[in-house]
Amino acid sequence: AVAAAMRLGAVLSALRPALPLLLGLSLGCSLSLLRASWSHGAAEERCLAPGPPVPPARGAPPEAAEGRPGPGHEDFRPRIVPYYRDPNKPYKKVLRTRYIQTELGFHERLFVAVLTSKATLNTLAVAVNKTVAHHFPRLLYFTGLRSAKVPHGMVLVAHGDERPIWLMYETMNYIHQHFGSDYDWFYIMQDDTYAQAEQVKALVTHLSINQDVYLGRAEEFIGGDEQARYCHGGFGYLLSRSLLLKLHPHLDSCRNEILSVRPDEWLGRCIIDFLGITCVSQLQGQHYHTYELAKNTEPEKEEEEDFQAALAVHPVSDMTLMYRLHKQFSRIQLDRVYQEIQDLQMQIRNLTALTPAGEAGVTWPVGINAPFLPKSRFEVISWDYFTEQHLFSCPDGSPKCELSGASKADVSEIIESAVEQLNRLYQPLLRFSKRQLLNGYRRFDPTRGMEYTLDLLLEAATQKGHSHVLAKRVSLVRPLSKVEIIPMPYVTEATRVQLVLPLTVQDLDFVANFLDMFAMNTLDTHDNALLTLLFIYHPYDAQRVSQVDVFAGVKAMVGELEKRYAEVKIPWISVKTEVPSQVKLMDIVSKKHPVDTLFFLASVWTEINMEFLNRCRMNTISNWQVFFPVHFQEFNPALVYRGEQTASSNTDFLRDGHFDRHSFAEACFYNSDYMTARTKLAADILDRDEVLESMEVFDVFLHYSGLHLFRAVEPGLVQKYTLRSCNPRLSEELYHRCVLSNLEGLASRSHLAMALFEQEQANST
């Protein structure tokens, strides 16, 4: 017994450290089993008295009574919509919108309407347009009567009647009809109002668009209800889209039933009577701050908090006061931004000191990305050397050129900024003045901006009048600012593309492949694209065309395509010339097509595909932009692979080649834009047609149009390697560009080096 007791004690002593764990596991399992039994009982047993089942409430669906979500929850239940196409109906290609914003029905954020008059259109309205108009995404001016000449850069809507109530009524109707479905917020202001555009835009970003909003400076009606308020028109007011849609059916009734002298009171009474919504000065935690100017106010001396926080200031009596207000509020906003930058930099320094890198991890300038670190010598960003007069890295490749234009202004500004920063740092002990720029270096770092290193010869003056000349090196950064989306005219993918293919005798071997790709990628897919062939005959071949037509085989292939596709017609134009100038050829084609034709000037080595044609449509905008793609040129397979099998992977189709920046043969542009530029060119060269032989279509648009020239690499245009024939009768520049294109298209440097190495080894053996 004693031995058994000793063994039990030894076992318990061994298990004593594990007893808390065993007890915890046991207790946890017991509680989990107990809870499961409760949950099971609650799911199966109903706490109802015996009897018939209780019917659902009136109007409630059966599934709601059974505990399943009703129709109010349908938006949260995923549904699979099956696709069904009627086999009896012909197939029709579905055109999807290019932008998801269009398909989902997104709205622009803010529309601004400025109420003006014939008397103030050329004064106060112009001041509004010059100060804040460019800060708003869309702004229109509304007046009763207009003057004979509308100020430049202003979109004006004239209603034909100067009565204030009629002007307000017609303005609200016009906004609803033309912009009611495009914008979420509508800001109405007068031309004697100064509005802080950035503050107004920030206000609407913090308001919910699901509410009916009537926000402004709330004023009491004269002799009216104490609870009702209208928004004072002089300080501007904000309307939501939902309120505008509800108000529009009642505008006619308001015009006939409500009598008022002031248009803002009339609109406020209309909204209150028919919608029951009164004007408020604060909503959803946002305040609409205003400030009323007194007579003979000096904006530069205004230090009140109400003035600095105001979104709108009224009344503004003249243009000069409007400009002074804009200058003062811009200074206030700039001071706030600088103070915010300093606070953020201080926070960055404090937080960086707590990181493993410590204070050494703080980049310069504080808050700007660190400089780009290249991973190989090919990624090193080179510095450009400059002085105050010359630049030693020129766009045309020359070693030295005069510093002018934007580059000269950039250098002057950066030197002034450097001296100013030095004086701010060392004053009042020292005062610096520039003697000379000894050396200047700059480079563009895509991760942070433009970097500068300046060696300045400075004269430093002390407070006692002593001066000393010294050289000092400074570094500066012009950081990349906030990315701005440039508004562009709307274009679609439904535009018809007219392909123009010039052909010479040297191109006959490649025409069959071009026509096959055109038929497969456009005709078989029913793409909205047409083709016109341009046969370029040498004078000798043109004389013998009745006996031997060098393009007879091409015409036969065109005839076969027209037989295969009965609805397709491929016209051709015959031209006789010794020098096939691109501009002269385009002149002939342009006269035979409507002005709204979208041309794609192709080459015989181009492989047409739908992806590129869509980009041609999207990147070419009438009276705005032309598109010159840079095609991808494959290298010579004999040098790249040297008898090995060609790579066939789809992911490597852009590997063995380069984008040919010397070629301008492909272009997308509208006929109307070409005709406009060509007219200016004709007036410049008069009757000197020989000048056209040294020009391409790109030169015409570059020098004789104000359009945007969009030139970008185009992976959708892939051309097989071929040795192009360069016409020596063309200009020296065009011939040199053609030769360079052939040479750079042979192979990469590594492939050429390997080919030379193998050749030397073969010669040595």
Automatic annotation (TrEMBL):
EC number: 2.4.1.-
The keyword NAD belongs to this UniProt entry's keyword annotation: no
Keywords attached to this entry: Glycoprotein, Golgi apparatus, Membrane, Signal-anchor, Transferase, Transmembrane, Transmembrane helix
UniProt-annotated location(s): Golgi apparatus, Golgi stack membrane
Major localisation: Golgi
One Gene Ontology CC term in the entry: Golgi cisterna membrane
GO function term, MF aspect, one: N-acetylgalactosaminyl-proteoglycan 3-beta-glucuronosyltransferase activity
Residue segments, region Disordered: 49-79
Top-rank taxon: Eukaryota
Iron-sulfur recorded as keyword: no
Membrane disposition: Single-pass type II membrane protein
Gene3D superfamilies reported for this sequence: 3.90.550.50
Pro residues bias: start-end ranges: 50-59
PANTHER family, per the entry: CHONDROITIN SULFATE GLUCURONYLTRANSFERASE, CHONDROITIN SYNTHASE
Family classification: Belongs to the chondroitin N-acetylgalactosaminyltransferase family.
Protein name (record): Hexosyltransferase
Lineage: Eukaryota, Metazoa, Chordata, Craniata, Vertebrata
